[in-house]
User: Fold these one by one.
Assistant:
Number 1:
Amino acid sequence: MTATEPVGDLAELRIVPANEARWEDLQAVLTGTAGRCQCERQRLGDGDWWHMPVEERRDLLRSETGCDDPRATETVGIVAHLGAEAVAWCAVDRRSVYGRLRGSSVPWKGRAERKDDDGVWAIACLIVRPGYRGRGLMYPLVAAAVEHARERGATAIEGYPMRTDGATVAWGELNVGAIGPFTAAGFVEVSRPTTRRVVMRREF
């Protein structure tokens, strides 16, 4: 799968903090591999995530998102709706909370960054629901994640998308995003730590 420019009528697209979305809607987006992960691998790191049953991952995500509670003071992502249907999810939070990022060489190679800098946020995962892929939903999703972080005091936000070079990439790999949506949202390339991954950043 490659990330395409937005197509079709997205006039009814509505993106909200996850605590303003229904838990059932978020679970409708997290299917297949994403349903098994429950977006906890990036937060927990491989070791803790691997040994945690799916049910516990699901319970943990529910507590972190605060879904169904618009009064919640914190949440860990945003949910997109097209009309009445939930269609996409983006995990966006302080970079320091993502254990897998902290242990990976991708964000840090060749950089002098403080891993505990809570002012820097990160887009850790993007999931578009089957049946709605290929419409360019990653573009408004990344843009909304930028505003979500800015409104919560972020001084910068990063992403770690994959270079597709026009090739088809499985959705299981493209959950980090592709370069196009980040470029469109004002991110600039910081480094290329591997042949396929790019570190991109936007300052506020």
Note: Helices lie at 23-29, 32-37, 41-44, 46-50, 54-65, 99-103, 138-151, 179-184.
Number 2:
Amino acid sequence: MKAKDATSFTLAHQLMTFTHKRMKISYKHFLTLLCGACYLFSPALFANTLHFKGIEDLSEQEIGYIVFKQLCQEMGLKVDIELLPANRAERAVSAGLAAGEIMRIYSYGENNDQVVRVPTPYYALKTTAFALANNDEARDLLYKLEQANVGIVRGVKHTMRYMEESKQVMQVMSTQQLIELLRMKRIDFAITSYVDGMQFLNKNLITDIQPMQPNLANHNLYIYLNKRYASLVPMFDDKIKQLHLSGKLDLMIRAAEDQVMNFD
């Protein structure tokens, strides 16, 4: 065989080998997508009840409970939701004992490799410091949290950073315990979400505690799924986007907020 012909043959063989490998990769990729799609739209998935967790005794989670259930109804998914202490909810989802959590901030997914995030948020919260209305030093102390004693609810991610940023931190199990610490002057600030704090104050007709401005932080809230249920991510994401564009999501949220916050 001439050198030119041998070179042409070698190049043709390499091209065929490369094309064959690419086809194998594409075929495997196609099968992966097909299997995921089959699972996603499996009749069993829609027939069975999916178990989700949320955090108990927090107002935004109660709002999320209502909105999340409506999202699932829109998709034809049967779900039940159990509200637990934050750490217990996280452990259950990480261990695969639940399909996911209904509502967590962005950093939750960065620190938990057993879950996947639905990319589009469906609610948001404001981290707010609450103080006694007659605490004249609270305004200045808000900008010097490293000198303040604060209280947070254990396991609630959007307040965990203040464990390092504050002089002393007391962790409790509920908003009620936070407010009790504040009224006993054992802490300077009770740090929780604005909605959660105001819901508790309004419900209990408490007027001697007030939210401080500005808010400490703003956080979008996302649905998280255990990795076993990752195929549900695009389904949730598309539905959230669809409801947002139609304006229906805003209506669902406002109705849920009214239900949780209205005590007339």
Note: Residues 3-40 form the longest helix (38 residues).
Number 3:
Amino acid sequence: MNVKSLAADLGTIILMVFLAVVSFAAPSWAYLQDDVDMLLELRDCPVCILSEADLSGQDFSQVNLKIAELSQANLSQSNLQEANLMLAELGGANLSQANLVGASLNGARLQGANLSGADLTGAVLTQANMSGANLQGANLQDAELTGAIIGDANWRGANLKGANLRGAIWSEAIICDTVLPDGAIGDRNC
């Protein structure tokens, strides 16, 4: 074996090791600019990767974000009225003061999301996971929360009048000055 052949073999081995290390590295879930552009232009972006994107204050009414990855995204003060967010990943997202009236959030993952002051009137959150979410002052009047996992979410000052909570798991939730589905004021875990 000559030196030239040995150097070529060593270079191949180094390249293979490098590719192996890179392929096992944790994937980056930060937003893809092409997906942001598609959302802004077409208002249709199912299965898009929009994690950590700043989408605050935008008009996304009736947008399709079904199964979209929106972890840690900033959607504060955005209009998401009647948006399709079914099965969307919204863990840690900022949806404070967002308009989610009539939005479809079936099966959405909202763990640790900030929904303070959001308007979710008539929103569908069937089987959504809201553990650790902040819903202080949120309006969920007539919302559908059947089978939702609420866990230790903060509902302080929220309005749940007329909401359907059948089968929802919310024994650890903070319900303090909260309007309950029957119109009574709840004070638990204050």
Note: The longest strand covers residues 175-179.
